[in-house]
Design goal:
There is one protein chain. This protein is α+β, with helices and mostly antiparallel strands. The protein folds into two domains: about 25-195, Lipid/polyisoprenoid-binding, YceI-like (Lipocalin); about 215-310, Orthogonal Bundle (Cytochrome Bc1 Complex, Chain D, domain 2), CATH 1.10.760.10. It is about 30% helix and about 30% strand. The protein is built from nine helices and twelve strands. It has helices at about 1-20, 80-90, 165-175, 195-205, 215-220, 260, 270-280, 280-285, 295-310, and strands at about 25-30, 35-40, 45-50, 55-60, 65-70, 75, 95-100, 115-125, 130-140, 145-150, 155, 180-195. An eight-stranded antiparallel barrel has the order 1-4-5-7-8-9-10-12. A hairpin with a 4-residue loop joins strand 4 (about 55-60) and strand 5.
Length: about 300
């Protein structure tokens, strides 16, 4: 379970620091992040647990430091929480994930872009350094925010983490016939730029050069016009797309946006629009759009060229 956090944090560092001229720190957003793991007892009873407090940052020099508050474990049974803290974690207050990463490695990833990569790192848990490697999926949600998740289910071996004796005690106290010794783990992490990092990112010029064909884009727009207008101030089921290039998301006057869009914090660069047109639900999960997305990047490029031409 702890392995996943390190992997997400390290990739976030690669992504975010490179995109902001390597100038400032990025902070883990605890409220939007989640580190969860599963267990099975009595051979058939599955349960899900998580840590309630995560903190961390990526420094301008590329140092990743992430702390997991072990006493914040939430198993939804109070006595089990207490036993986990005392016997499994042996009263330790935190596990620490650290790494020195190459800030420029993912510098080319644009807002709205995604990637999968392999990373290496080290986890310190109960005085033991555990080397880690894994695949992580990253989506850059905006210039100042990134989503990092495990690309596949991660399995943590209890013996590898040095937790065997503690789990044995937990099993004995609960009078269970068995507790699985491998835990499936999922992780979702959101990293947000500090004020300095946000200013550095915003200082970078927005590239609005479009490679598509506006004439072909006009035909693609037929898929959009049932809900969207190109006239300023004319909203329909969706907001007007007049002058959308280079603007912030959820800012069209008079249109009532979904909560998902209100919280998205996007800037409609060419790259961000392309990503959204191809995968609306993936870029803004929970939005109300019925349209599932264009099937080809070429269609998105042509549509953006048409939107730019129309102003």
């Amino acid at each position: 379970m702890l392995n996943s956090l390190f992997r997400g944090a390290t990739l976030a560092a690669l992504l975010l620091a490179g995109q902001t001229a390597l100038a400032a720190d990025w902070q883990l957003d605890n409220d939007s992040s989640k580190l969860a793991f599963g267990s099975i007892k009595k051979d058939s009873v599955g349960e899900v647990h998580h840590f309630q407090q995560l903190s961390g940052q990526v420094s301008s020099s590329g140092v990743v430091e992430i702390d997991i508050s072990l006493p914040s474990i939430e198993t939804f049974i109070d006595i089990r929480n207490e036993r986990m803290i005392e016997h499994v974690f042996k009263g330790a207050t935190a596990a620490k994930l650290t790494a020195q990463i190459d800030l420029a490695a993912l510098e080319a990833l644009p807002a709205g872009g995604t990637t999968v990569t392999e990373i290496d790192g080290k986890l310190n848990l109960l005085g033991r350094d555990i080397p880690i490697e894994a695949e992580i999926f990253v989506a850059r949600l905006s210039e100042t925010k990134a989503l990092i998740t495990t690309d596949n289910i991660v399995f943590l071996g209890i013996e590898d983490a040095g937790l065997t004796a503690g789990v044995d005690t937990l099993q004995s106290l609960a009078k269970l016939s068995g507790i699985t010794r491998t835990a499936p783990v999922t992780a979702r992490f959101i990293f947000t730029a500090t004020e300095d990092a946000a200013q550095a990112s915003q200082a970078q010029p927005t590239e609005l050069a479009v490679a598509g064909d506006a004439t072909l884009g006009k035909k693609v727009f037929r898929k959009c016009k049932a809900c969207h207008s190109l006239k300023e101030g004319k909203n329909g089921a969706g907001p007007s797309l007049h002058g959308i290039l280079g603007t912030a998301s959820a800012q069209v006057p008079g249109f009532k946006y979904s909560k998902a869009f209100q919280q998205a914090d996007l800037t409609w660069s060419v790259e961000q629009l392309q990503a959204f047109m191809l995968d609306p639900k993936g870029i803004v999960p929970g939005n109300r759009m019925a349209f599932k997305g264009l099937k080809k990047l070429e269609e998105a490029e042509n549509l953006i060229a048409y939107l730019q031409e129309q102003g």
